[in-house]
Amino acid sequence: MKKVTHRSLTTRLSLTLLAFLLSFSTLTFGQEPAAADAAAQAAPAADLGGDPVAGKQLFNANCAACHKLYQKMTGPALFGVGDKYEKEWLYKWIRNSQELIKSGDAQAVAISNEYNGAVMNAFPALSDEDIDNIIAYTYTPKPVPTTPVATEQAGGGGGGVSSDIILAVLALVFLMLAIMLFLVNKTLKRIAVANGVEYEDKDRADRLPIWKAFAQNQFLVLVSAIFLLLASGYFAYGWMMQVGVDQGYAPVQPIHYSHRIHAGTNQIDCKYCHSSARKSKHSGIPSLNVCMNCHKNIAQVGDKTYQEGISEYQIDYNKEIQKLYDAVGWDRDNQRYTGETKPVKWVRIHNLPDFAYFNHSQHVTVAGVECQTCHGPVEEMEIMYQYSSLTMGWCINCHRETNVKLESNEYYAKIHESLSKEYDFPTLTAAQNGGLECGKCHY
Fold it and tell me: If residue 88 lies in a helix (H) or strand (E), which one and from where to where?
């Protein structure tokens, strides 16, 4: 007879506890290598005797304009610089690099030649302790950006269930109710027939169909025809007025450019990039060399901005900057232009008809109109879109409501003075100054 072992309750609890401890130990030991790596990377900073926290402040105040930790900029990348050069040499180099170069030091001369003789600022005020702190900061391990996992956001009233699912369920319920009513009605008719009950209306055949009654009533026909004509004209006019109106148009550009970051977060003036708006009819698309004025030194965005782009907009800003480098032929590792460029085919957003004349300089420089008046809250737009309708009626309303800028403009001030004497105008609008004449915009 086969022997069967019956485990007691204590044995089963012990096995369960052992399994839990094993799984917990696996998770714990799985995290240890990462902690060990971080400790190993942070170890050199501790060996150098510096304070990386204080070093970060000194680095940002004195070094960040020309150096980055992990890639070349105006000067070399400084990650782990204490392993490349002796500490005493670094003291001399940081305090006065030009003096060290003139002395004929081989390392100093080599660095100067590699970076085309770029002059490094002297920092004689930095103490040995300050330099040690900066060197300690250069051992900060490079942060690895993590891609956030998209999760469903639970709605307040929906309990996390999609509204489409709720509508589908409601439609199914109504369909089932309609089928049930049909079946109940059919069953009741069968019962009535079986019991000899007459449920059909005998006078039904003598009734006039509703469509015939409507056709015989000439007044109703006339009123309905007039209503249909007016409604058709209204909707046809509304549809035709939208032809050529691209309000809300937001095309995808070959290189993503965030006005929200540049004009909003960084508060860059619109006219820095669109400089031709001051003196030209066109605002112009900035040439890529304007972008490189900043991005020659900004090859990556901050970690917070990177995570925001991935999670909220599904955009990798660092890849978009690399597209800019590919277009202008910039080798960011060697900090030089390769000469191999690629054209960028931007997609135009605002496009007035050829028969309409609009001059940016007249509005921006002379009238002092803000860019947001026509283009909307650009500083909040991640993807640029056409904010205003830009129709003729929209322009006319603006001319009727906008006062002419009389301050520091003797020409318009003189016109206002003569008009106020004749017509008693307290202010001078663009419309009163001839802004509604056809020839102002069409010629």
Answer: helix 87-95
